[in-house]
What we know:
By secondary structure, the chain is α/β, with parallel strands linked by helices.
Amino acid sequence: MDKLNISVFFPTYNEEANIEALVTRTVETLKRLAGKWEVIIVDDGSRDRTGEVAKTLVKKFPGVRHVRHEKNRGYGGAVKTGLQEAKLDWIFFTDGDGQFDVAELERLLPSTQTADMVAGFRINRQDPFLRKLNAFAWGTLVRTLFGLHGKVRDIDCAFKLFRRRVVDESAFVAEGALISTELLVRAKKLGYRFAEVGVHHYPRKAGTQTGANPKVILRAFKELFKFYGQLR
């Protein structure tokens, strides 16, 4: 199997304690697994030292770039920037919180022989019960609305590898947590092939989760029903 050319990006917000280890691990992994590669740190208006750490990593590792939003746009806005900045044939993204081992990208690579979108699903998800309950309800709703049953079991798992043309042929609109759903739905509508691979999930070591914030959840539902209406 030939090595893929892979763009990797991380949406980050206030991840000063996590981003250095994540980028270092990613560079080591890509040197081993990829042909051409690049790493993009998308700093979504962080208020801590994430930007300073990112600039240090850019100097340390050729192939690492830092893109900053002056104002926080939200998770979807950060993901859209990463998608726009990615230049290579395949795109991979995971979150900047260090809850996944980016080296498990290797688990996804064999599926690229037969799939255009390889979606990870979390093995033994390490999140609070309420967040897991919310995710179950959200995932059930999304799979029902958009016909994703049998395609993807873990909608919002931030461990996805897909062909660049999925992005080139889509115009993404979500600025919040809906972005993962939108990415999958647009790939499905374009007729792309899916595969799923289990990846391990680890407790957050530092920083604060924002996914369970009521404002984040409300925004996701607003975007969901707007997107559903547009597709109909």
